[in-house]
Amino acid sequence: MQKQWLLYILTLLLLGAGCESYVPYPRPFGFPRIDFPEKTTYTGFSNETCPLKFDYPDYGKITRDLPDSCWVDIQFPLYDCKWHFTYRIAGQNKDKDAHFEDYRRLIYKHSAKATQIKESPISVPAGQGVLFEIYGNVGTPAQVFLYDSTETHIAMMSFYFQTALKNDSLQPVINYMKGEIKHTLETFQWE
Questions:
Q1: CB burial string 128-143: b at 16+ within 10 A, e below
Q2: Which helix (H) or strand (E) holds 104?
Q3: Calpha distance 29→138 (Å, rounded)
Q4: Quick check: 83 and 110 in contact, CB under 8 A?
Q5: SS3 for 173?
Q6: Are 160 and 139 in contact (CB under 8 A)?
Q7: Model-level pTM?
Q8: Which residue in 3, 111, 148, 158 is a FRET match for 105, CA 20 to 30 A apart?
Q9: pLDDT value at 17 more than 90
């Protein structure tokens, strides 16, 4: 009888010692848990070639910033995604509207897999443009076309995933990164 009580007490002690404070995190079965930074700090981007400046989250790192080009890639290894920026000048060959239609045509090539492509006009201190939100199982859930008040300077930005996961499991990252994109657009400046 003493052995049973001793075993019972030992079991209770082991169970009590093994418990940690656990905060439940509801998520559907099989979906990855994604933690976001509590407070994001930002790093400024500028270079001598590109006449643009903006802030981007400090957990991103610039992976392509060529001295002779205005193509910039910012990688976000935590979420396996990147932002790609391209700069164009509207001039004699193509005006702002022609650049916009070319970009829009590229975006609508996602129609085969997209369930919806939503175009939202944006207005930020640097100018105006369009935010394209692409819904469905696509690799680019958001793209931006931004131009200045003279309609000379054009910036195009694409948000890419480099993973094969379904977008329903990536939706928290998509929503979070769209917020970060909006912050970046608010800090955008032409030089």
A1: ebbbbbbeeebbbbbb
A2: helix 96-107
A3: 22
A4: no
A5: helix
A6: yes
A7: 0.77
A8: 148
A9: no
